[in-house]
Write a structure and sequence with these properties.
The chain has helices spanning 20-33, 45-48, 55-71, 89-98, 103-107, 110-118, 125-140, 153-170, 215-223, 240-253, 257-263, 269-295, 298-327; strands at residues 7-12, 38-43, 80-83, 145-147, 178-180. It is built from 13 helices and 5 strands. The chain starts with 6 loop residues before the first strand and ends in a 7-residue tail after the last helix. A 3-stranded parallel beta sheet has the order 1-2-3. A two-stranded parallel sheet has the order 4-5. The chain is mainly alpha-helical. Helix 3 packs across helix 12 (269-295). The longest helix is centred in the last third of the chain and has 30 residues, at 298-327. The protein is 54% helix and 7% strand. The structure holds tryptophanyl-5'AMP. Residues 9-13, 21-22, 25-26, 44, 47, 134, 137-138, 146, 148-149, 151-152, 186-188, 197-198 line the site of tryptophanyl-5'AMP.
């Protein structure tokens, strides 16, 4: 609790170009929840280097992502929007939590398996302990709730297990966090392979809608989306392409999938696809315009970066000192 409010933590990697999946699965829910909670939204640049990055590109993408958080509607006066690497407590707590996490647990993480298959020439220790840094992110702020897409659920479960294990040994040190998964949009699939999630690292750019895609590109990608030969619009696992388009449409318009199905009753895919395109454009265009505007205001963004890093450091240090004391590190002499 901070000032009588429950705490929310979430983050995104500044790797690759953000997709509509990131927006509908996470960012959109962050905005809905931001009034109710005391929120920490991090640009998790330390997670990004588990895969080799070009330094200048990473720095630029990190700044763009931070700007995008604000452009999407997160008020930086109320929400703590900051770079993970500006708060050393993340790394310090991660080290301690590493000593409370088992190799077997980390070996089971599907994201580790996927990423090691993808980057077979660079299976580094950071990639393996990635979920422990994520646990540190969350537990450092004593978060009650963590809004994420479904693909992060396994990491969230691990975070809960680590917190409970630690608490069983040392008393109630950490708040055990709950995941918040949105009702629609929690797993947006690729437009080209609807059995795979829409991903920043997809090699086929037609599978993903990127947040910075222009309206023509968005429309073209929606019109090219892979569907099926059934010809009727139902919300069913047997029609994964159509189901995904309905999910995107619902998440962008605020309608339920059932309402969307009703709206397209008796209509064909040729009507659904452009309607999805329009719905996506109406969500992304204002975001892009605001991003352009904010990006030009260097002094404003810089002031947010400075002030919010100070705020994050304050809360992170509070938890860190408590944990360090519990595990037996000597007190600091003032
Ligand atoms: P990342 O950067 O891969 O994704 C950011 C958020 O977007 C969600 N997401 C999706 N949701 C729906 N459909 C999709 N196709 C889709 N693709 C991505 C993710 O679930 C996530 O919520 N490890 C995390 C970042 C992280 C973090 C944290 C998150 C680091 N520390 C602490 C929460 C709490 C990641 O790589 O997300």
């Amino acid at each position: 609790m901070i000032d009588g409010k429950k705490v929310l933590f979430s983050g995104m990697q500044a790797t690759g170009n953000l997709t509509l999946g990131n927006y509908l699965g996470a960012l959109k829910n962050w905005i809905t929840l931001s009034d109710e909670y005391e929120c920490f939204y991090s640009v998790v640049d330390m997670h990004s280097i588990t895969v080799r990055q070009d330094p200048a590109t990473l720095r630029k993408r990190a700044r763009n992502l931070l700007t995008l958080y604000i452009a999407a509607g997160l008020d930086p006066e109320k929400n703590c929007i900051y770079y993970q690497s500006h708060v050393s407590g993340h790394a310090e707590l991660a080290w301690i939590l590493n000593c409370f996490t088992y190799m077997g647990e980390l070996n089971r993480m599907t994201q580790f398996k996927d990423k090691s298959a993808k980057h077979a020439d660079n299976i580094n220790a950071g990639l393996f302990t990635y979920p422990v840094l994520m646990a540190a992110d969350i537990l450092l702020y004593q978060a009650d709730v963590v809004p994420v897409g479904i693909d992060q659920m396994q990491h969230l479960e691990l975070t809960r297990n680590i917190a409970e294990r630690f608490n069983n040994i040392y008393g109630d040190v950490f708040t055990v966090p709950e995941a918040y998964i949105g009702k629609v949009g929690a797993k947006i699939m690729s437009l080209q392979e609807p059995s795979k999630k829409m991903s920043k690292s997809d090699e086929n750019p037609n599978g993903s809608i990127y947040l910075m895609d222009d309206p023509d590109t968005i429309m073209r990608k929606c019109k090219r989306a892979v569907t099926d030969s059934e010809g009727c619009i139902r919300y069913s696992d047997e029609q994964p392409g159509i189901k995904n388009l309905l999910d995107i449409y619902s998440a962008c318009t605020g309608k339920t999938p059932a309402e969307a199905v009703k709206e397209f009753e008796g209509k064909g895919y040729g009507e659904l696809k452009p309607a999805v395109g329009e719905a996506v454009i109406s969500v992304l265009k204002p975001l892009q315009d605001e991003f352009e505007r904010l990006s030009k205001d260097k002094a404003y963004i810089d002031s947010i970066i400075k002030e919010n890093a100070d705020k994050a450091n304050y809360y992170a240090t509070k938890t860190l000192r408590k944990v360090q004391r519990k595990v037996g590190f000597p007190d600091r002499i003032r």
